[in-house]
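Researcher: Watch the backbone:
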Amino acid sequence: MSALLNRLAYLQTRRDRTPNLDLARDLASREDKAGIREIATNMWNESKNIHADCVHVMYEIAKIDPMLVMPYASDFIKLLKSKHHDTVAGAMTALAEIAKADADFIFKNLDAIKKARETGNDNVVEKFISTLARAASANEEYNKALFPDLLKQLSACRPSDAPEYAERTLPAVNESNCAAFIKTLKKRNDDLSGAAYTRLAKIIRIAEKMT
């Protein structure tokens, strides 16, 4: 096993993910393309534990600088087909970061991204919303195409999920669509109380300032 892979949490027999975070920060700070390539290659490692750690390291690098993982963007699309929810969530997390830097890539791969959302768990859906919202914020064309999907998620989700989904949708909200956004949120607030109601009401106030 290489010295780099030996820094992974699993190979250090650690139950926490701190080694993966440290490795991601190290590779990103040095813009170590060779090291990132090795981690990316091992997202396909036969060991499920090494595979999982490498996916984790890659999306943590993406959070720091999405351009560093752009050469492997297609790998994240392929990983969306995984039978393992954690892998799909990790891939969607990376794509949510990539959306900040390359909305075109997200838009070109919408079918695969939407399909993963259909079968994904709550974590996948949350990252899916962030992916679409960030891509929608890139330009008017993408916003018009993607914002209806975001409103659909807000309208159909469990009441308890509405505040989280609304916050993740905010990057896509602008002067032209904020009225529809506010209308949707006010309908959802009828189903809420307590902290969730207060949280959603705060988002409504933020959106109202955009009108």
Summary: DSSP finds twelve helices and no strands in the chain. The mean pLDDT is 96. The chain has two domains: 1-138, 140-211.
